Each structure stands twice: as structure tokens, then as C-alpha cells.
Amino acid sequence: MLLRYLFILLIIIPIKAFALIEVDITRGNLNPLPVAVSPLSIDNESKENFKKILKQEDLGSEISIVVENNLRQSGLFNPLDKNAFLQEPDVANLKPRFEDWNLIKAQALVTGKVTFVDEKLRVEFRLWDVLAGKEMMALAFTTVPSNWRRVGHIITDKVYERLTGEKGYFDTRIIYVSEEGPKTKRIKKLAIMDQDGFNNKYLTLGNELVLTPRFSPTNQMVTYLSYFRNLPRVYLLDIETGMQEVVGDFPGMTFAPRFSPDGKKIIMSFAKDGNSDIYTMDLENRIVERITNHPSIDTSPSYSPDGKQITFNSDRSGYQQIYVMDSNGKNVKRISFGNGLYGTPVWSPRGDLIAFTKLHKGKFYIGVMRTDGKGERLLTENFYQEAPSWSPNGRVLIFYRETKTNSKGEGFSAKLWSIDLTGYNEKMVETETDASDPSWSSLLSD
Amino acid sequence: MNRNIFISFGLHIFLVIITAMSLPFLAKKPIDLPPIISVELIQISDKTNIPFAPKAKKIIEKVKEKEKKLISEQAPPKKIKKQKPDAVPLPNEKIKKIKKIKDEKQNPEKVETEIKQISEFEKKELFDTNSIAALIDKSKTESAETNKKLDKVTQDQDKEMDFAGLTLSEEDALKAQIFGCWSIPLGLPFNEDLLVRIKLQLKPDGSIIKTEILDHARMNRPGQGFYKVLAESALRAIKLCQPLRVPSTGYERWKDMQLNFDAREMLEG
Lengths: 446, 269
What we know:
The complex is a heterodimer. Chain A is an alpha+beta fold. Chain A has two domains: 33-164, TolB, N-terminal domain (Rossmann fold, 3-Layer(aba) Sandwich); 173-440, TolB, C-terminal domain (Neuraminidase, 6 Propeller), CATH 2.120.10. Chain A contains six helices and 31 strands. Chain A has helices spanning 2-17, 44-54, 59-74, 89-94, 98-103, 148-164; strands spanning 21-25, 33-37, 41-42, 77-79, 108-117, 120-129, 134-143, 173-180, 187-194, 201-202, 210-215, 221-228, 231-238, 244-249, 254-259, 265-272, 275-282, 288-290, 298-303, 309-314, 321-326, 333-334, 341-347, 353-360, 363-370, 377-382, 384-390, 396-402, 414-420, 426-429, 434-440. In chain A, the strands form seven sheets. In chain A, strands 2, 3, 4, 5, 6 and 7 form a six-stranded mixed β-sheet that branches. Chain A has a four-stranded antiparallel β-sheet with strand order 10-9-8-31, with no helix packed on it. In chain A, strand 13 and strand 14 (244-249) form a beta hairpin. Chain B is mainly α. Among the domains of chain B are: 78-163, no CATH class; 172-268, Fusion Protein Consisting Of Minor Coat Protein, Glycine Rich Linker, Tola, And A His Tag, Chain: A, Domain 2 (2-Layer Sandwich). A three-stranded antiparallel β-sheet of chain B has the order 3-2-4. At the A-B interface, strand 1, helix 5, strand 6, strand 7 and helix 6 of A face strand 1, helix 3, helix 10, helix 11 and helix 12 of B. Strand 7 (134-143) of chain A pairs antiparallel with strand 1 of chain B.
């Protein structure tokens, strides 16, 4: 009997003694990650060469500023003040003294080197995990010197992806409608710029009214609507060559042409026999196919990223609401049921959310909801704002906002704004003129 | 006849001019596009030979000294825990016995002898009450977590302590510390399994000897790239937080510990 007890004790005691303590960590902080972006080191000879070509005093510093600004704009990173850095860029690039960077509370560090090789710009960069004391990534890029800002954006994309787990959105461009002049006589031009507002270019002269430019998700093509002799025309513009072509003249009101996810079709709504429905056009054979056939007004169609579904807005319930249907027009289902009117639905590139504009009690909201209509979140509220467009990673929305005019009709302006899915990181996107109808491109270097 | 030819010719010329003028791309130069950027991987040496900067060394030494001072100034947490059971109303006879014990707890030395004398049954009761008191104190609502903690012992029972987990307040202190250090990567897909289990080996002062990601192989599985980002963020949190806020006694029971980082709640919420 005693032996039996001893045997049981021998088994139980070690189990109890070595029971591993487990602690569940289910919360963290969403504070921006402290990152140090060291100026990229550059030798004197390269510095002189770049100074001659680009008129930039210190290209290494300039590229690091592009990276730093991008990271700060994202709201997910807190680039630390360069004045606090203890290590020189040339030394930091070889292998940093992590104690120095720990002291200033950096958790990640970006270092690099810029050289002038065979008339080209060569940029090496490294991303370090300061706390673990190890390298996370090392890449080098070679390009023409005038491309230096793009190199900064590509570096940011790589850093962003490595630290957040999702692709970046910095090496992208935004096409928008540039607006000038009084509200009653606006000159509207198509314009394109980098996502940070640099390298702005105008694509049309402003002779004709242009509306709703939209990027193709697969290449650098843009579709937009323009009025030629008061007739709406849908155009295709190739950003790479500057060539444009007319897709077709559509009688009656035509709205918001948009590409399918494979870039082979455009989807739009236009009025035929006094009734607005949704149509697609195959860009290869120009065959138009009717998708909806309902006496109500159906507009603003947008494909899901897999191309199997379409979201659009319709007043078939009596009020303008958001609907989802299969890409052949079947299984139409209403998904918005909140108070107010819903419009301009846009499917996220991630496929999980639909962004929309909502009008309720005289205020405009930009919001998101899940594709089944649940989980509606209003991200921002204003006097007038609409036309959200997703960043290629589905994290940020860009839209435009107009201001009120006073009694004399003065003070009107239209500006681009961006907001991320948290709803906290809202920022105005600088443009040379007033701007509306923005559309975000896919990643250029993907 | 000739007149008609002239009119036709004139109209055709007019049509060509109008067409040329109305097509904007004819007058425009194509947009100059940057050429494609080539990417190549580079390697660097694993270890550095760079000398330690004298400026940095001084600053690091100062910070270390400061931290040492702070640690030595910390007061032991024992006394606070002993007062917790006093606040609990106890309705029956069994609880009367416990009340006696608690009254005597005003003197810490006596408490030790009392505990040694009570039976196994009474010990169990005592543990339960303490846990309940702690629960009320902390306003805990999660029933699952409460059930787990009811079986745990207080810091005063030295003999039992070596075999048990952390008390609620010890666990809360540790959690609160790590919550502040863990920057959750926001790009993670929240419909995936976002649990990272990390086994720690700790020094008595709470600093880390060794960390081990328990499901390390998952990092290399296709489609699980996000797991590496998540695991690295958890490791950074541990390193940033060290020394961890561990109890001042009972090193044997917590020298090995497992932290389960789960980002789903935060990302879904």
C-alpha cells in the first residue's frame, strides 16, 4: 500500500513542480512604431556628381527624408528626430551599434548607402531590428538618377511590408481632376501625381469637362468620362505612352466608368430610354452587356477583387442604398440598412470591406462596411465629401472634400484628403490646384 | 462639276484640320516614365568590428545606473496582498475560521504559523476566499479566467507556491507591462490564426535568458508570411519590456514561463 502511494507521489510531484506558467497577452498598443531612418551615407565623389545632375546637395539625406515622410504619413510609424542620432550614417550602414539606437528608443532602423555608378544611381538599404540586434532585410536598387524619389518610395514599401505584414502603397500615383476658376465656371483638367503630391503633371488641357478618372488595377491605364459637344464620352488613356482613345459615346447620362479586376472590361451606368442601368463593355471587342434591368436608378458599380460580384447603389427600395449582386446581375441583395442615403460604393482591394459615401441629416460621411453590410463604421464627417478610392493595400482611402461658400459665393474650395481604416489618421493631400475625384493606382513596382 | 469637286475637296480639308485639332494626343508629348528598377540582394558580414563609441558608452552607463537605482527603490509588494481578504464578507461558520486567520494577518509573523497548523480542508477554503477577494478587488468579469484563478494560491503559502501559477495581481502586473510594449502589426489578416506562443527562460530579476518561438516551423509555411511579422513583434515586446515584472519570490515557479500573444482580439475589435 505504502509503495503504491509512493509511486503515485513520484508521478504527481514532478508534474506539479514543472507545470509551466502560461500568460495570455491579448492586448497591445496601436501606437506608432518608433523607427530611426538614418540619412543614407554618400561619398564625396558621388555627392558632387549628383549635385551636378540633380541639383541636390545631399542625395542620401533627401532619400531618407522621402522614406521618413512616407512612414510618418502612414500613421503606423513614428520616425525619430535625426538630431538624436548618435551614430554617423557611414558607420551605421555597416553594422549599427544597437546600444546607441536602443538609447533613443528606436525599435527599427533604416540605414543605407548611395553611390554613383556608371552614370546611374545605386542605393543600398538595410532594415534592422534594434531590439533583437539583427538585420531584417537588405536590398540594392540601380536606376537613373532622376528616379531618386521613386527609390525612396520603394524602400518605404519594403520597410512597411516587413514591419506590418501587408504590402505598402507608397510607390503609387494618384490621378484626379484638377479644378481652377470660380465655382460656376470651373476649368477641369486631368492631373496625375505621386501619392505624396510630388511630380504633378496635367494630362488634358482643360478645354472639355472631365470626370471620374479611374485607374486600371492591372496596368497604368485610366478610364474617364469627358463631355464632347455636350455628349458624354468614355475615354481610355495609357499613362505610359500618353495615347488615348474613345471607348464609346453613350447617350443620356453616363456615370463613373470603372475597370474590372482583370482590366479587360469597364463597368459603368448609363441611361437608356430614360432608365439608368449598369452595363459592361468588353475592351477587346467593344460588346456592351446589360447587367441590371430595373426601373429604378442603378449607378456607381464596382467589382469585387475576384471579379465574381459587383456592388452598386440603387433607389429601388425608395431610397438610395448599396446593393451587391453576382457579376452576371443575379442574386441582387441590399446590404445597407442604416439611416440616410448611401452612394459611391467601392470594393476594397483586400475584398473584405466596401467603402461608401453616406448622406444623413445634411452631413456627408465616408465610411466602410463589411461586404454583407454588417460592421458599418463611419470614418469621417463633413459638410460635403465623397468619392472614396482605396489604396492598393486596402488600408487607406482617398476622397475629396468641398468647403461651404459664403453669401457672396466666395470661399469655395475642393481638396483631396486621405484617411486610414482606424479613422484617426486623417490628412489633407497637397495639390497645386483645387482637386476632386481621386483614384489611386496599383503599386508601380509590384 | 468642277465646282462640286472644289466644294468636296474644301470640306474634306476642313474635316482633316478639325479632326487633327480635336485629338489632344497629337499635340502632346508622351509622358516621360521612369525606367524599371532592378533589384538585387546584398549580403553583409554577421559580426561587426566597429569600436564602441565613447560618447554612447558614457550615456549607456548613466542610463544603466539610473535603472539600477530605480530597481533598488522599489518596495516589496507582500503587504498589500495580505490585506485583500479582509474586505470580503463571509457568511457561514467555515468563514468564521478564516476571519480569525485574517484578523491575525495584521501581524505577518503569526500568519505563517497559522497556515502551517490548519488542515488540508481549511487550506482549500482559505485559497478560495483569497481568490474571490482578489477577483472582487479587480472587478473581473470574465468567468473563464475566474475559474482558472480560483484554484491558485496566494503568495503567502510558500510551500504550495512553488507548484502553482502566478496570482491574479502578479499576472495582471505582467500583462499590463507587456500590453504597453507590444506594438501590434496592423497589417495582419485578422481571419487567420494570430496566436504566437513564446517560451521564456528568466533570471530572478525578470530579465530574459532565452526566448523560443514554439511554433517556429509555421514561419516557413506558404501563405504564413504574416506569422513571422507577428512573432517578431512579440519578441520585440518581450525584449523592450525586460526586466519583466515578475514576483520578488518563488523564482522556481516562474523561471520558465510561456507567453501566448494573440492579436486577433485587437485587430477584430
